[in-house]
Amino acid sequence: MPNWTWDAHPRFAKAVDEILASHEARLHKVLDLCAIPTTIVNVTSRLFGPVTGYNAFLALEEAGAHIEQLYLHGELAAANLDKVENTEQPVVRYHRAW
């Protein structure tokens, strides 16, 4: 079996770099959108515009993943934590943690 490295396949390394840069830009966009408390649904519509059907699910899932990553790294916080804790089906509003 040949010894495979990224150096041997520069187009793949470039594609990976482009994907990582795209996700980094998307994370910054989500942070900007959360300058004021907002929901995952609002972030999704601002990131992807109008989407329907299965694409709506995929867009919501991707926006939620970016929000979760930012939340887990302390970049976002729940703005309405009191309602989240005391409401049966709360709608969490996220905002920048700093």
Task: Report on this structure.
The chain contains 4 helices and 2 strands; from the N terminus they run αααβαβ. It has helices at 10-33, 40-48, 53-72, 81-86; strands spanning 76-78, 94-96. Strands 1-2 form a two-stranded antiparallel ribbon. Helix 1 packs across helix 3 and helix 2 crosses helix 3. By secondary structure, the chain is mainly α.
Output the keywords.
98 residues, mainly alpha
Q: Layout of helices and strands, plus pairs?
A:
Layout: H1 10-33, H2 40-48, H3 53-72, E1 76-78, H4 81-86, E2 94-96
Antiparallel strand pairs: 1-2
Helix pairs in contact: 1-3, 2-3
How many strands in all?
Answer: 2
- Can you tell me the overall shape? elongated
Work out the helicity level: 55-70%
Rg on CA atoms, Å: 17 Å
- Describe the biggest sheet? 2 strands, antiparallel
What percentage of the residues does DSSP assign to strands (E)?
Answer: 5-15%
Run of helices and strands: HHHEHE
Query: What is the tally of helical segments?
Result: 4
- Report the mean per-residue pLDDT as an integer: 90
Low-confidence stretches: none
Biggest sheet: strand arrangement: 1-2
Structural class: mainly alpha
Distance between the termini: 50 Å
Produce a short descriptive summary.
The protein has helices at about 10-35, 40-50, 55-70, 80-85, and strands spanning about 75-80, 95. With about 100 residues, it is mainly alpha-helical.
